[in-house]
Automatic annotation (TrEMBL):
Region of interest (Disordered), ranges: 1-34
Keywords, ordered alphabetically: 4Fe-4S, DNA damage, DNA repair, Hydrolase, Iron, Iron-sulfur, Metal-binding
SMART domains assigned: UDG, UreE_C
Name of the protein in its database record: Type-5 uracil-DNA glycosylase
Domain Uracil-DNA glycosylase-like, residue spans: 93-269
Keyword 4Fe-4S on entry: yes
Homology family: Belongs to the uracil-DNA glycosylase (UDG) superfamily. Type 5 (UDGb) family.
Annotated InterPro entries: UDG_Type-4/5 (IPR051536), UdgB-like (IPR044147), Uracil-DNA_glycosylase-like (IPR005122), Uracil-DNA_glycosylase-like_sf (IPR036895)
Keyword Oxidoreductase: no
Pfam families: UDG (PF03167)
Amino acid sequence: MTALPHPRTDNLFESPVTPGTGWPGDPASPDTPIAKNAEDVARIAAHCGEFEDLDAAISVCRACPRLVKWREDTAVTKRAQWRHEPYWGRPVPSFGDPFARMAIIGLAPAAHGANRTGRMFTGDQSGDWLYRALYDAGIASQAHSIDAADGLALRDCRIIAPVHCAPPDNWPRPDEKRTCAIWFDDELARLTTLHAAMCLGQIAWTSTLAAARRLGWQVPRPAPHFGHGTRTQLVRPDGTAIVVLGCYHVSRQNTNTGRLTRHMLDDAVSTLLDLADN
């Protein structure tokens, strides 16, 4: 029997990956509508019937020219250690249970992490920290996330981000954040089972509070400042309360310096579970 090629070690795809070519976990097809500006994003998001449609539309978005060029250039030039691997090179859709009670909110894909693998927090040290903590808490099915074909699944949790493209210097411009916020708002509004959210870093925190205001949710005033372990409560128009928990980001800058320790991360994930349960 002829062995099947592995989707991440055999260079089956050009970089960046073309929608509908069989990349593991690719939610898009050749017919998925492509947003080319903020107006397109709003129109397409409004017509997405299911989470699968939203993920597909996000994964082919081309609304921010600078981010499109950066993510695609990175997918071609690559990093030396992955020079023989194909890169995803497209916007990275959210990952996890669409009916989750818990959400983990990051910032944006890493240039050689999720921009390479096509899945949030996959293929880099930040993901190693996060998924190990989620596995220990019984949320992730495995402790390591290598690629989009490794079988990882999340229980009752969804990972989302205010920006879906890898930005230069890990810093999206304000206009780019505003455009991607349309996707972010739509996803938050769809997560009707959400009880608790953990924001990884200040940008995730402020982006979540801003999205809640745009959606007409009750947000404390003055807005609470981000801090590790800080909590605040948002209330949807239907009266449903969502507790938001702050946690330092699992970036190498934080984990290598000890600003965020494994014990601190484990405690934050445990608190997230308790908030979702109660």
